[in-house]
Amino acid sequence: MRAIFPRMIRGEFRGRLGGFALDASFSVPATGITGLFGPSGCGKSTVLRCLAGLQHLPGSLCDVDGDVWQDDSTFLKPHQRPIGYVFQEASLFQHLSVKANLVYGAPRGDAGGAAGVIAFDEVIELLGLARLLDRAPRNLSGGERQRVAIGRALLSQPKLLLMDEPLSALDRLTKDEILPFLERLHARLSLPVIYVSHDITEIERLADHLILMRAGHVIGVGPLSDLQSDPALPLATARDAAVNFAAIAEAYDANYGLLTLRVDGGRLLVPSGPVEPGARRRIRIAAGDVSLAREAPRATSILNALSARIVSTSPVGPNEMLVVMGLGPNGNGARLLARVTRRSWDQLQLAEGIEVFAQVKGVALASERGVSEATK
Ligand SMILES: Nc1ncnc2c1ncn2[C@@H]1O[C@H](COP(=O)(O)OP(=O)(O)OP(=O)(O)O)[C@@H](O)[C@H]1O
Predict the structure, then answer these.
(1) Which family does it belong to (predicted)?
(2) Atom of ligand 1 nearest to the CA of 49
(3) 244-368, CATH topology level
C-alpha cells in the first residue's frame, strides 16, 4: 500500500495531451505558498488542472495533507476536492453584488469561529473589500475584480488554494497594488497555496517553496532560496539572479533611519522607516549587488560586509564566475550569490571553502504591506 503523508502535497502526474508529454512529480509541504514556475508551455497549468481534478491522467497520483485525491482506484471529481481556484481573469456573476459574489459557494450554516475557518470579516479586511460590497462587478477595476475572486475562493473554505497566473492579466501598476494584499494573506492565513506564474518577481515576493518545471518535467523542488542558489538550475545563472530569505528586525536606529536585521548567519543594516523589534521581513539580495573581499573592508560607504564562506562556484559565460556563499564563518547560514569576473576570481585567489566578506550594495526589504528598495 502507498504511504500517505499528512502535511504534504504530493503529485505524480504523467500522460500525454496531444503532442505534449507530462511527467511531473513533486512533494511539497501543505503550508505556505508553493510557486509553480517555468517557461510558457512547460506544463504549469496542466499540473494545476490535474491537482483540481479538471484533467484526468490515468495512472497519476495525488494526495493532499493525508487525503487521497487520485490513485489507481480513486479519482475525486473537481467538486469533491476542497479547493479554491483563482484564474487569470476573474469570472464574477455580473447580476450579483460583490457581497453576493463573495458568499456564493461558501458553505451554508454559521461556521463562524470554528477552528481553521476563514471568516467573512477577515477576508474583507485582508483584501480591502469593505467599500466594494454593494457594487456590481461591472463597476470594479481589474484589480478589484481579482481581489473579489480571491475572496470568493477563500470563503469556499478550501483546504488548498490554486492560483493560475492570477496577476498576469493586470498591468504593472495594478499588479503592484495587489501583491501587498497577497503578502498579507500569506502572513495571516495558514492555507496552503499553489501559485502558478512565469513572473519571477511574483515568485520571489510570495513563494516559500518552489516547483521548477521545464518541458513537462519537474527539474527542481524545494525551499525557494535552495533552488535560487543551486548553480545547476536556471534561476542561479540568470542575469537577474537573486536570493530571498527571512530576516527578523532586531533594532531600529532613528537617528540614521537604519534597521538592523538578523538573518541566518549574520546581520544586515537596511535604510527603513521604524519597524518593531521581532517583526519578520523577507529580503531580496541580487547577485549583481554583491561583491567579494578577502579581508574585512575598513573605510567604505557600503553598510554591509558579511562574513561568509564560498560553498560552490561555476563559470557563467567565458569571463564570469557564479559564486554561492553560505553566511557566517562556517558557511552554514543563508545562501548568497555573487557574480565576479574571472580576473577578480584569479586576483583574489578565490576558491571553494575559503572565507570571504560579502559586500552587499543593495537589499530589497519586503513588508506585509509592500516593498521598499534600500541601497548603500
Ligand atoms: N488538452 C490538451 N490537448 C493538447 N495539448 C494540450 C492540452 N492542454 C495543454 N496542452 C499543451 O500542453 C502544453 C503545456 O500547456 P500548459 O498550459 O500546461 O503550459 P503552461 O506552462 O501553463 O504555459 P503558460 O505559461 O503559457 O500558460 C502546451 O504545449 C499546450 O499546448
Answers:
(1) Belongs to the ABC transporter superfamily.
(2) 18
(3) OB fold (Dihydrolipoamide Acetyltransferase, E2P) (2.40.50)
